[in-house]
Amino acid sequence: MSKLALQGGKPVTKNLIGTTQLISRRDLERRYLLETFDKGPLDDWPGAKSTAAAFAAEFAAFQGARHCSLITNGTHTLQLALESLGIGWGDEVIVPGMTWQATASTVCDVNAVPVLVDIEPDTLCMDPAKVEAAITPRTRAIVPVHLYNRLANMDRLLAIARRHKLHVIEDCAHSHGSQWKGHGTGSMGVFGSFSFQNSKSMRAGEGGALIMNSKDLYGVIESQRCCGRRFPERPKAQMHSGNYRMTSLQAALLRGQLAAMHRNAAVMDRNGQALDRAVAAAPGVLPMRRDPRITRQVGYCYAFRYDSEAYDGVPLVTFRKALAAELSWDFFPAYTPLHHSELYTPHTKRRHQISAAYTRAITPSRWKLPVAHDIWENRAVITLWQIYGLAPSRAHFLSDAIAKLHENRAELRKLASK
Ligand SMILES: Cc1ncc(COP(=O)(O)O)c(C=O)c1O
Questions:
Q1: At residue 125, does pLDDT exceed 80?
Q2: Which end of the chain has fewer CB atoms < 10 Å from its terminal CB, N or C?
Q3: End-to-end distance of the chain based on CA atoms, in angstroms?
Q4: What is the pLDDT of residues 291-326, one digit of tens each?
């Protein structure tokens, strides 16, 4: 039995990826950046011929939607989407209990109540049965998140929304390039919300995009991101707002990255499936369930599940640390479920304390999310999108490392108890 890397033994590999199979078009990023710098405009004004306008059109086409508005970040995208639909005081919006805090906090930002529902244990996306059970006469919208490396069950969620006359806003911060039955994520709901924050698979430091098919809503969003201005071509589309525009400098980087993503998306999908096979072949772990309706899966992260019973009770945190040491690669916990999250505390903000009843309604501890809690505490192993650069011929490193940990589970237990 070989000694654990955590105990000074030889790691399974010191170079997991070798040469990444993902291409980058930094040449294009630089070219678009310099062109924008030299010729301008630096901003993104509706109707102007800018790098931002070019990228917005290309990104909408890539995700399969008619329109795209570029917005400051993937938090403001959600806020503007809710506002444009007239969602606010007195309304409820259903969101998954495991997600980044913005999915829920933006609902509070428009004075509505986020209703947190539990997730499916094998996809980590919102459970449609829990969504249906959470609908009340006040419900106005559902916000599915295509989390990590899986997509929410769009067929069921869209059917529920149709039946109950609800809006669907897809939170696609993790799913640039993914497709459900050939439809790009974000193109199936009334809006698709994307983040270009620095850790994402397409990134510009910060940034966001809303895609949509409705020309009317596009008009409202264009007004909203421009301080509520009226534009001559869309005179009726006006709503009080602020400045939520992205810049052409950010769009220049994203335009180059989109050119790379056109090729990388299929590679990430193929390599992700090789990772799933490696996890399936390893002891005491399970890949996430891939719905056959997913026609392309491009994850922001790669996630799989750990079963501590198969490791005689070795805690998840020890498993993750030991795996990181064997592969010289970082592994993370899942998002803290929102009813426990340090970053999701809307009831502490004075602006949100509209009434005692509202404060109670938005206090996260009122929710019970046993599946999300179990996944976070005991099961989820997460790593970032760069792992999709791993060639299928090297995916065995992952199963080799896991098998080594399983063989050494008695040692791991001792380490955990120290
Ligand atoms: C699921 C999800 N929604 C929304 C956001 C917010 O995006 P941004 O950081 O661009 O505001 C993020 C960012 O990590 C996210 O992961």
A1: yes
A2: C
A3: 22
A4: 999 999 998 999 999 999 999 999 999 999 999 999
User: Where exactly are the structural domains of the chain?
Assistant: 5-23+263-335+374-417, 26-257
Query: 390 CA distance to ligand 1 centroid (A)?
Result: 25
Mutate to test the pocket of ligand 1, among 100, 124, 246, 254 (most ligand atoms within 8 A of CB): 100
Q: Strands 301-306, 380-384: parallel, antiparallel or unpaired by DSSP?
A: antiparallel
260/29 Cα distance (integer angstroms): 10
Q: DSSP string covering 340-398, please?
A: T-TT--GGGSGGG-S-HHHHHHH-GGG---HHHHHIIIIIEEEEEGGGGGS-GGGTHHH
Structure tokens given for 72: 């400051």
Q: Cα of 23 to ligand 1 centre, how many Å? A: 24
Cross-strand partners of 381: 304
Residue 38 in tokens: 């030299």
Full-model pTM: 0.98
CB 60 within 8 A of CB 108: no
Q: How does DSSP assign 133-183, residue by residue? A: HH--TTEEEE--B--TT----HHHHHHHHHHHT-EEEEE-TT-TT-EETTE
pLDDT of residue 235: 62
CA 328 – ligand 1 centroid, Å = 27
State which ligand 1 atom lies nearest to the alpha carbon of 300: 16
Ligand 1 centroid from CA 404, angstroms: 35
Using CB distances shorter than 6 Å, the residues near ligand 1 are 73-75, 99-100, 102-103, 145, 171, 173-174, 195, 197, 208
pLDDT digits (tens, 9 = 90+) for 382-402: 999 999 999 999 999 999 999
Tell the burial category of 133 from Cβ atoms under 10 Å away from its Cβ (0-12, 13-18, 19+): exposed
- Assigned fold of 26-257: Aspartate Aminotransferase; domain 2 (3.40.640)
Under CATH, which number does the domain 5-23+263-335+374-417 receive? 3.90.1150.10
Tokens of 392: 């299928």
Neighbouring CB atoms inside 10 A of 146's CB total 30
283 Cα to the center of ligand 1, angstroms: 33
**What's 210's DSSP letter?**
E
